[in-house]
Amino acid sequence: MNRLVIIGNGFDMAHGLKTSYMDFINWYWERRLNAMLTEHAPISEDCLCKLEIKNTKDCASWSNFFFFHSFRDLMTREWKYPPTEIVNAIRENTDDFSVTCSRFFETILQSIETKGWVDIENDYYQLLKQCTENEDRGYSVEELNEQLAYLQEKLVEYLRTIGSNLYKKELHNPMIEFFDPADFSTEGKKKALENMGFEDTNLEEIQNIFEEQKKLRPERIMLLSFNYTTTAKMYGNFNIEFNYIHGELEHPEKIIFGYGDELDRHYQDILDRNDNELLKNVKSVKYLETRHYHDMLEFLMSAPFQVLIMGHSCGNSDRTLLNTVFEHENCVSIKPFYHKWDDGSDNYLELVQNISRNFTNMKLFRDRVVNKEQCKTM
């Protein structure tokens, strides 16, 4: 009996790392503001946005502009406000300033403003689908892919600036602890127990027999990390193996950044267009560039397994892969770790709602997902 631990961005955030896409966009704006201080031209531009000073006679440089509008302290040379607030103030100052964003980047900024968070991969896919529906969309597939590639490059650059050596025992223990048969699905319990060597043994007697308890130890544990950081590697054990399914910072050329939802009803439309540019950043295609996906499949087929979900939102951007895991015939349990806030509220319901979208068989969903009473927070 094996255990598959699905690790998402929430795992890094539980270690105090600012790895959300919103943190990344704040970093991007700060880098843009710092670079603009050294520019003497009235225009600053990349593939995401163009920023322009209108009144160049009154303010010939970016540096003068920032100090003139009191965005930067003359003495300390520090920014007085968070980067996003400065950029928003600049965008509102239409008399002196002009900001032109690409459709993709504007969508990202609107998500942050209205929701307080953003899923860049999902925003990319929504715009990609429009390329098959609307000819007069104002952007091309090539431009969209160029901007995603640029964001990936900058994301790698950002993630390399942060790191953590903080090991959390309360996260490691659930990875390696013995199985609790109460977590197993009704449909998969018999198969799981037989695989561990239990036949007619009364499960209540296991608690008093050490040799029987040892059978509940996971034989193999795979940490399936969807992150690019090395945080997961702090959690080694004699029976733990690592699978960075989307690549690692050490090998940026192999990083997968895109979208993976073949269950979406519009996905067939993309295939039918017979345009490889539309498939350039689809994860199912990118998985073939390394062995990571095949290693995961071998693990799934080797024995019955339990899934632990640590910090992954289970959103649609990984729906194809998660469906493969969750509906696999050897999957006997899906145990999500949820977040609880100081006011007592938590995201367990939202998390299992997301998990449900990765199923096509809702009977399996209801049987395999562990109820809240048996789950833990992280």
Question: Quick gist of this model?
Answer:
The protein has 378 residues and is α/β, with parallel strands linked by helices.
Question: How would you sum up this structure, described in words?
Answer:
With 378 residues, the chain is α/β, with parallel strands linked by helices. The protein has two domains: 2-18 and 162-247 and 290-374, Rossmann fold, CATH 3.40.50; 21-159, no CATH class. It is 39% helix and 11% strand. It contains 17 helices and eight strands. It has helices spanning 9-13, 21-36, 62-68, 83-92, 103-115, 120-130, 141-159, 169-176, 189-195, 203-206, 210-213, 267-272, 283-286, 292-302, 319-326, 348-356, 362-368; strands spanning 2-7, 43-45, 49-53, 97-101, 221-225, 240-244, 305-310, 331-337. The strands form two sheets. Strands 6-5-1-7-8 form a five-stranded parallel β-sheet, with helices on both faces. Strands 2-3-4 form a three-stranded antiparallel β-sheet. β7 (305-310), α15 and β8 (331-337) form a beta-alpha-beta unit. It is elongated and about 85 Å long.
